[in-house]
Amino acid sequence: MGIERGQYVLLYHSESAKYLVSFIPNKALHTHLGIVELREDLEFGDVIKSSKGKLFYVLRPSTSDISMKVRRTTTIIYPKDAGWMILEAGVGAGSKVIEVGTGSGALTIILAKIVGPNGKVYSFERRPEFLENAKQNVEKAGLAEIVHFELRDPAVDGFGVKDADAIFVDVPEPWTLAQAAHDALAGGAAWVSLSPQIEQVKSTFEALRGAGFVRLKCVEILEREMLVRDVGTRPKERMVSHTGYLVSARKVKNA
Amino acid sequence: MGIERGQYVLLYHSESAKYLVSFIPNKALHTHLGIVELREDLEFGDVIKSSKGKLFYVLRPSTSDISMKVRRTTTIIYPKDAGWMILEAGVGAGSKVIEVGTGSGALTIILAKIVGPNGKVYSFERRPEFLENAKQNVEKAGLAEIVHFELRDPAVDGFGVKDADAIFVDVPEPWTLAQAAHDALAGGAAWVSLSPQIEQVKSTFEALRGAGFVRLKCVEILEREMLVRDVGTRPKERMVSHTGYLVSARKVKNA
Amino acid sequence: MGIERGQYVLLYHSESAKYLVSFIPNKALHTHLGIVELREDLEFGDVIKSSKGKLFYVLRPSTSDISMKVRRTTTIIYPKDAGWMILEAGVGAGSKVIEVGTGSGALTIILAKIVGPNGKVYSFERRPEFLENAKQNVEKAGLAEIVHFELRDPAVDGFGVKDADAIFVDVPEPWTLAQAAHDALAGGAAWVSLSPQIEQVKSTFEALRGAGFVRLKCVEILEREMLVRDVGTRPKERMVSHTGYLVSARKVKNA
Amino acid sequence: MGIERGQYVLLYHSESAKYLVSFIPNKALHTHLGIVELREDLEFGDVIKSSKGKLFYVLRPSTSDISMKVRRTTTIIYPKDAGWMILEAGVGAGSKVIEVGTGSGALTIILAKIVGPNGKVYSFERRPEFLENAKQNVEKAGLAEIVHFELRDPAVDGFGVKDADAIFVDVPEPWTLAQAAHDALAGGAAWVSLSPQIEQVKSTFEALRGAGFVRLKCVEILEREMLVRDVGTRPKERMVSHTGYLVSARKVKNA
After folding, report:
1. CA distance C218 to chain B (A)
2. Looking at B61, B86, B102, which one is the last position of a domain?
3. Which of A185, A210, B81, D154 has the fewest CB atoms inside 10 Å of its own CB, making it the most exposed?
4. What residue in B sits closest to A182 (Cα-Cα)?
5. What's the pLDDT score for residue C241?
6. Which residue of chain A has the CA closest to D242?
7. Burial classification of residue B162, based on how many CB atoms lie within 10 Å of its CB (0-12 exposed, 13-18 middle, 19 or more buried)
């Protein structure tokens, strides 16, 4: 089972030497560990050698790999947070979801992979240069058909979408979107947002309550790596301590 | 947009008074906060009153709600862990995944919702009484057609599946399944497993290395709730400190 | 080396069956694991049997044991937090420290044990019934001579102390004490306080800056227990997620 | 109240520009923020300017400041861990404690400050070059008289101390010291040790049980900094995830 032209491949030597590339048969990849040739009969799972004799594994990139490797114009949502958001929002294959703002498209890719061709991601961004970069990232990931991008400020113009299954919010002022989100969501459906600062969370809670949301919740997700080695087992010495506070809520009808 | 007969509804008063029910028009639900009538024209997002005058919200259950509320014969995988596993495994709409063991079906439901009708979950369990309970849980969630259940011990008999996109392992001795998993996975695809104890992780790492897996990783995911209230903002006083260590790895071809 | 009359002894069977008692020779202690007789020749380190044949260990109580076992009228400061506060404040044998409020005296005991007979703890409390209980707790711990208790509201009347080496603050409104603390501390000396809520921390930071404090810092200390057993090693399933935010600062002279 | 010659002073501009110096009147300190003159009438709490006009605060160093700033030949114990160990061991003014190994003397300094001139720290180290460096660090901190250093391997030769109030162990193989520690401790007194790896903890538990210790406990202490700023409040983005597992136990008499 060969790899298709343009498909994402993760060439993996180690966590500090891994390359996410779009497959082009017979292309040569130049790395600091030597040249790696992508033969046309390359298959996932192959173990190949660079010109310097270093081993590379031909892996299917995980959703985390792709989302963490996009070209970034902004900070991005981490997989540890996105995973929680998806299950909290109840999103799955076929869901119709809203995302705002698009940013670098890391979460867009994650959402598109989850909802699939029978679902839809409506992704909103105010800054044209961000939107352009995100579009390219999503296209490279082969998910362009699932995503509808829109250059728009929904705090002003609304989302123009009805009965969405969930809305994912990653903007500096989420509270400005509470009313528009309430209009766009299906009854009982979920808002999930991420904010780095606790003051943002407080303002968001207040706006959500005012707009007709209930079951407000705020959590942090911490990921801690364990090193499991022959010399001994222990947590890694340093970790990301904070990405953001996650907020979720459910729309109910206003009286 | 009415609710279909049999569809899951979350009747929510508070975190300590919430009810996941299969919708049956005109059924009355007896709770300690009074009787709640499920009128036939009930819609998601409605706010209704119990016979004791308590407010209930008619919410769409999140994937987390459903998976945490299944009838349990075993400990279950928490959404915080499942979310990480899904993104790490690269699973999405249309994926073909293996799960072992089925347990109470909590992860089965999460996976089925993610892969959808164009995907497939092959779920293996050795204990008939567990499998029976899990089947009922999955059926109630409306996901039965996506899941193929099998009463089998894959450590002995293999999985009988080829080219799976990922395998999710939640059994006490994951290391016994490394070889069978290698046979069943597509090249470069992912193993993810969860084990409560560090000795299990060490044995799993050893078996995975021996069977032809690379890029072994072990993490813990911690979820910490923040209380955002008028009286002040702070983390909740108690939390779940440990569910399990998560292990991931990728299959490469053996020389 | 016998145990003195009145000295604290920890009779330890397990974490859920341990007794902190003032030693009275030949006294009998009634427990749900049987009667334990405190023979007059009892020594620390002895292993004794109750009337029901259960083993008890005669241990020296740690500072943590004593502070966690005082008769409580209030929430108390945990050892994990107190340990950080002591090292951050630079307190040791011979230090002269202020504490406010006294509460149940748990921190008073910890501080008295650290500063010793050549040091002094000035402990302030506004509520007479709390002060009375705390005095008894400190006396039972054999540390009464080190502590000077005072029923007073220092926010109104000041501390009446000069050149203190550090001040430990555990009151609901720490910010009301910033000016009085600045008057009472030696130059360059430390303020440390604990507050459950982030809004309290923000008000405290503001007041400290205004009163002439620098090097403001805020941390949380988390204690996570590991279970190391023959059946396997893992973190305990539940933990205390939050006691309070710790704040430290240093006094500088006002221009 | 002037500063004595040789006394430690913390010249503090910010966390990334702070200097722990032994006070020598009229000495000039060269920093990348300009020259700071230590006038003979300098007092703690003074605010002074460097030759480049930068503000420096003249602070009393905390125990944490001194222990983290010693000249290092080894990794050192962090204050977050040392604070827990001190309260768990029940150490205070006047205590007689053993430390092994001395390492860079960071914990030696912390312990000496706590036990004071009426107490004693017996500090053991096998490597002469480490001991020499630690001695200098302790002397600079003005605590030399409280510490008795010894170049010795207690696993082979024992501690030569009796009835110690506690033993603090920071060596790669703590389990080799269980028997010698049991001999050196008073009845019911505490062992506390720190080990980075879980395998070390398991071996230590086994040796402690074998040597006559009870009430074995293992914890981790995590310190997480909060940034409290006008632009918003949040945890710092990165943190130290792991220093070591802390083990405590109590000596009982062998049957």
Report:
1. 14
2. B61
3. A210
4. B45
5. 96
6. A237
7. exposed
Q: How far apart are CA A157 and CA A166, in angstroms?
A: 19
User: At a CB cut-off of 8 Å and minimum separation 6, what does A14 contact?
Assistant: none
User: Which residues form the domain of A14?
Assistant: 8-61
- On whether both D26 and D144 belong to a single domain, the answer is no
Whether residue B3 is contained in a domain is answered as no
Q: What share of chain C is helix, strand, coil (3-state, %, to 5)?
A: 30, 35, 35
Q: What is the pLDDT of residues D53-70, one digit of tens each?
A: 999 999 999 999 999 998
Statement to judge: residues B36 and B126 lie in one domain: no
pLDDT, tens digit (0-9, with 9 covering 90-100), for B139-196: 999 999 999 999 999 999 999 999 999 999 999 999 999 999 999 999 999 999 999 9
Whether A210 is covered by a domain: the verdict is: yes
Average pLDDT, chain C: 96
Average confidence (pLDDT) over A28-35: 96
Tell me whether residue C3 is in a domain. no
C 61-120 residues inside an 8 A Cβ radius of D: 61-65, 67, 79-80, 82-94, 110, 113-119
Chain C residues whose CB is inside 8 A of the B196 CB are 232, 234
Report the chain B residue with the minimal C-alpha distance to residue A87.
Answer: B63
Write down how long chain B is.
255
Task: Write out pLDDT tens, residues B55-78.
Answer: 999 999 999 999 998 888 888 899
* Domain tally, chain A: 2
Nearest to B208 by CA among B191, B228, B223, B194: B191
Helices D79-89 and C79-89, interaxial angle, to 10°? 120
Q: Which of D209, D198, A231 is nearest to C232 (CA)?
A: D198
CA atoms lying within 13 Å on the CB side of residue C167: 33
Strands, DSSP E only, in chain C?
Answer: 8-14, 17-22, 27-31, 34-38, 47-49, 55-59, 96-100, 120-125, 147-151, 164-169, 185-195, 213-229, 232-235, 238-240, 245-251
Q: What are the tokens at B177? A: 């399944």
- The shortest C-alpha distance from C162 to chain D (Å) reads 12
pLDDT of D29 > 90? The answer is: yes
Claim to verify: residue C12 and residue C115 sit in the same structural domain = no
- Residues of A within 8 A of D219 (CB-CB) are none
CA B73/CA B125 separation, integer angstroms: 12
Cross-chain Cβ contact A214/B12 below 8 Å: yes
- Bridge-partner residues for C229, per DSSP? C232
pLDDT above 80: residue C42: yes
Mean pLDDT of D61-80: 91
A–D CB contacts, 8 A cutoff, strictly below? 60
Q: Which of B232, A174, B237 is nearest to C202 (CA)?
A: B232
Share of chain C above pLDDT 70, in %: 100
Q: Does position D1 have pLDDT exceeding 70, yes or no? A: no
Query: D148-176, pLDDT tens digit by residue?
Result: 999 999 999 999 999 999 999 999 999 99
Give yes or no: residues B36 and B133 share one domain: no
Chosen domain end from A22, A43, A61: A61
C-alpha closest to that of D114 among D166, D75, D189, D70: D166
Q: What is the mean pLDDT of chain D?
A: 96
Q: Cα-atom radius of gyration of chain A, to the nearest Å? A: 20
Q: Which helix (H) or strand (E) holds B247?
A: strand B245-251
- ipTM score above 0.90: yes
CATH number, residue C178: 3.40.50.150
* Beta-carbon separation of D87 and C93 below 8 A: no
Q: Considering only residues 206 to 245 of chain B, which have any Cβ-Cβ distance to chain C shorter than 8 Å?
A: 224-225, 231-243, 245
Residue A218 in this model has a pLDDT that exceeds 70: yes
pLDDT tens across D184-224, in order?
999 999 999 999 999 999 999 999 999 999 999 999 999 99
> Taking CB atoms and an 8 Å limit, are A237 and D240 in contact across chains?
yes
CA distance to partner chain C, nearest, from residue D18 (Å): 11
Is residue C57 domain-shared with residue C70, that is, in the same domain?
no
